[in-house]
Amino acid sequence: MKKYFLVLIAMFAIASTLAHAQIVKKEGSFRCGGWNDDFRQLRDLQWNMEELDLSLADCDSIRQNALHSRHRLKKIIFPDKLRIIGSQAIFACDSIESLTLPASIERIESRAFGNCTGLKSITVLSPTPPVLAEDAFSGVDINKINLLVPRGSKKAYKNAPVWNRFFKKPEIKEEQCPTEYAIIPVPNNIAYSHTCMLSTKDLGKIIAPASLSNEQEHLKKVLLERLGIKTFNKSKRPITLAIDSNIGSKEAYRLTVSEEGISIIGSDAIGVFYGIMTLDQMLIPEQDNGILSHLRGVTIEDSPRTKMRELMIDPCRIFIPFEDLKGMITEMARYKMNAMHLHLTDDQAWRIEIKKFPKLTELGSFRVGMDDMQMPIGGFYTQEQMKELVDFAAKYHVEIIPEIEMPGHQVAAIHCYPELTCGAVKLPIRTTCGVSDNLLCPSSEFTYEFLETVFSELSTVFTSKYVHLGGDEAGNPPLECWSGCESCQALLKDIMSAPDTKPQPGSRNDNWRLQKYMFDRVIDFLHKKLDKTPMFWYETDFHEIQPGCVVFAWRHGLTATAIDAAIRCNANIMLCPGEHCYLDYPAAPGDMPEVNWGMPVTSLKQTYKLDPAWGYGKDFEDNNLFGVAGTLWSECINSTERLYYMAFPRALALSEAGWSQQKNRDYQNFLKRLERISRDMHRRGICTANPQ
Hints:
The chain is built from 19 helices and 30 strands. It is α/β, with parallel strands linked by helices. It has 3 domains: 22-170, Alpha-Beta Horseshoe (Leucine-rich repeat, LRR (right-handed beta-alpha superhelix)), CATH 3.80.10.10; 174-302, Chitobiase, domain 2 (2-Layer Sandwich); 309-683, TIM Barrel (Alpha-Beta Barrel), CATH 3.20.20.80. It has an 8-stranded parallel beta barrel with strand order 19-20-25-26-27-28-29-30, surrounded by 5 helices. A 6-stranded mixed β-sheet has the order 12-18-15-16-14-13, with helices on one face. A 4-stranded parallel β-sheet has the order 3-5-7-9, with no helix packed on it. Helix 4 runs parallel beside helix 5 (269-282) and helix 6 packs parallel to helix 8. It is globular, with a radius of gyration of 27 Å.
């Protein structure tokens, strides 16, 4: 381990010589607009920037997301002609302690300085208070910021909307319950009472069996955060938690609010937990520092449409710190998503400790650069950390599913152990996006020793019955890597000589049989030795889907093809079609990530449009549909805040697609509910994109 850290330190030293200047000064003309404008270059390419001087730049606005989540940035000098600071322009630049806004400033937009938690003082040189968005400082305690304004202007700022918050401590404001509750995903059935109103001041007693102790702790947290309830006694109205397997399928719940109290009954502990998450949303206030004084009587009966609602997280291209994965789990669970799929290996990095193959993390977890972002990228997860994550997620009823790619997207592993590929070719770790032609060698026994060891070690870490095998984009052209390998072609000849071998019309060559051979061996090992259920990305090269597997429909325009294959092979299928579920794509033209390699737009509305049935009807839903998944590939996600920005609110639309019945879904109604929930996310410091 000591050797690894010495190597890592040396690599970071090399990387620092490649870094851009820590102090950056821009003068004269300033390109604003287009995917690679000056703001994008400052934000994503000047990774080491600590000071930015724009005083002489010909720029009158800091555009949306201009310097989003640049944690190293400590100081910024704005242009003298600056008029507008756009939405999330300086979001989460939490190393900045002081700001001076020029006299020319006219407008500061939504969350412009959101999560700038290091701010201690702001000087505004304009004698007239600029227009300030209500949530311009979301996630920041503005009462800890010293606001300085021109002499004689203090009264104007004290009376100006939003600015006046800097001069007085917030007061708790009581609010009546909303006419309708804002709940995402929308429940199956909501029946309101026209007469019953329950005072939240009367709550403070929990009745629950010992088997629901975990759910009881979640409920206590909700009551503390939403209503300020710290103590519980017998004289209060009760909140009753219970299990009744007769109320519905797995994860179902019934929530009732009446004059006598609140009852949450689940078909299992997961259903009780989801009932608590629904109650949490019912208690969201309209205003900052608001608190609901009453709850409207209601009965909610709810259950999920699909078995699995998943987010795939990619820490390979840009490493995601361990603690930040926990934050994503807690946010997913609020909206009834129940699986985090961790993409742990790829061409750009190997991110999980494997004790028998230590070079995977010693050599495969660090590199400099992701496309044009020449920054050092390093890190991996120990097995103990992943065990901790699995235990943490279980408290939120979220399953952690590991992915180890095969046969492609394995350049980082091949870099560490060249004998994994045909001819033992020595490869550098990939530092760009795209698809490598280098694949694992299906004719080498070392390949299977390697994979079986990896999966065996991970089976002691991840308790999920599922493991993802990748399977996508195996070379370009597909599987061509094996054509020049004598041992692979000899193996293929043996496979082709089997008496039950049938021709496959339309195949480019027979190398797909080598991939099937590899998958058959690994899947058989997973089934028989580890009792795991394999998952993989569906490609048309998979002419057969092995029994007991789950395939993912992901390619644009090929969802029906994947579904037809799943039905033909009697397999389960997850829907994550790129045109609906690729959450790493921008949500609107010009939004992050600015289009730099041909990304299409996946709008919030387009994500919401996903119908998991895909027009195939009830038989398909009952027999083949497994769930829905959103993908967050991280080539362009270079901070945790960017990860949240790309995920939300589209992940909320996806959760509704996976949970709610199609007849209950309506996009305009979703947007209405999203307003209150988005404000709550902003108050809690969660980074989201603006709904488009």
